[in-house]
Amino acid sequence: MQLAPGAAASSARVFPNPLYTNTQGFFTFDNLPASARVRVFTLHGEEIFDASANASGIITWRPQNMVGRNVASGLYLAVIESGGEKKIMKLAVVR
After folding, report:
1. Tens digits of per-residue pLDDT, 45-86?
2. What is the pTM (predicted TM-score) of this model?
3. Which are the contacts of 57, defined by CB distance < 8 A and separation ≥ 6?
4. For residue 90, what pLDDT is reported?
5. Sequence-separated (6 or more) residues with CB below 8 Å from residue 6
6. Rounded Cα distance, 5 and 53, in Å
7. What are phi and psi of 7, to 5 degrees?
8. Element (H or E) spanning 93, and its range?
9. Whole-angstrom Cα distance, residue 1 to residue 58?
């Protein structure tokens, strides 16, 4: 069974938020349009994650940077882009 993707970037959700790494393993972005792009940045502007949604409009992110190291506790910004529309969400990681 396949889930239907979201209609627009503005309908995107992320959970759990905050993410407690000792009990939860990853963030899930859902209700994304198919092929929506999700990028995660530190508050300093360093890009640490970049992926495109699958046909169901879902992406998971294990809180690691581009080289596979765990990210520190703190706030991060997720930029979701699809069809010329952009949505920015705050993510919190607690280690």
Report:
1. 999 999 999 888 999 999 999 999 999 999 999 999 998 999
2. 0.92
3. 3, 4, 5, 6, 30, 31, 32, 33, 34, 36
4. 98
5. 12, 30, 31, 32, 33, 36, 57
6. 9
7. -85, -30
8. strand 85-94
9. 14
